[in-house]
Design a protein that fits this description.
Helices cover 30% and strands 41% of the residues. With 250 residues, the protein is an alpha+beta fold. It has two domains: 17-210, Sandwich (Immunoglobulin-like), CATH 2.60.40; 211-250, no CATH class.
Length: 250
């Protein structure tokens, strides 16, 4: 019994310990006010040993910023007799309203496709959760179309050179949030990767919230939809009447 116990102790003592990530973000709360033109989010942190010392190996860093999820319907447009009409469609349960990936080098050179898919390290590996019967051949074009549309809006993007690492310890990355960024809760997850394996990860949380007049309008639209709609119609009619009177005098 003594020999097996000694072997267990030796194996346990020889087991390597992974690094520790200490992630942080420049802004935990981003206020969206009237005239908001976007924000530049700085993500930074350190890679340390469990004892708090600098690591003695090179690591790659991948940062994934995501949120908030929402249900989306993607429709195919077809031209029939010269008119564009809706054709087939696909519904996705949880497409993120914003998705950005920043890495120290191209993800394809850091991990294999299986690992990238598990951790969603890239737009090609984003899991959109289609609703209903899952036919990959049917869903794939709609998923690509959704990703391409969100990229054109600046809400999905990836940058394989955005993360810089200094002295194997400190890392930082900048991710741009466009003016159309949706409000809600976001997560910024950082992965430390070595030799194709994710050895550590850390999460920081971000809140994008409306402030001032924009928040008032959003609250009224959400909690008093009928009154908001009636006020919007009344305002439109009033503006139309005023415009008509002005032009009638010209």
């Amino acid at each position: 019994m003594l020999l097996p116990a000694m072997l267990v102790l030796l194996c346990g003592a020889a087991a390597p310990e992974g690094p520790v990530l200490v992630p942080e973000v420049s802004q935990h709360v981003i206020h969206v006010e009237q005239g908001f033109t976007g924000a530049d989010l700085l993500l930074y942190g350190a890679i340390l040993t469990p004892e708090g010392q600098p690591v003695d190996s090179d690591y790659d860093i991948v940062v994934v910023v995501e949120g908030p999820p929402r249900a989306v319907v993607v429709r195919e447009k077809r031209q029939v007799a010269g008119v564009w009409v809706n054709a087939a469609s696909s519904r996705f349960r949880s497409a993120p309203g914003f998705f950005a990936v920043a890495s120290s080098r191209p993800v394809a050179g850091i991990v294999d496709a299986r690992t990238a898919s598990i951790y969603e390290l890239g737009l090609s590996f984003l899991q959109l959760s289609p609703i209903g019967s899952i036919d990959p051949a049917h869903e794939a074009p709609f998923a690509r179309g959704l990703v391409a549309h969100m990229q054109r809006m600046g809400l999905y993007h990836e940058d394989p050179q955005a993360v810089t690492i200094s002295h194997r310890v400190l890392y930082q990355a900048r991710i741009a949030l466009p003016s159309s960024v949706p409000t809600g809760d976001y997560t910024a997850e950082t992965f430390a990767i070595r030799q194709g394996r994710v050895l550590a990860s850390g999460i920081t949380r971000i809140r994008v919230d409306k402030q001032g007049f924009a928040r008032l309008i959003a609250d009224r639209a959400e909690h008093a939809g009928l009154a908001y709609g009636l006020c919007a119609v009344a305002l439109s009619v009033a503006m139309g009447w005023i415009a008509g009177r002005l032009f009638a005098r010209v």
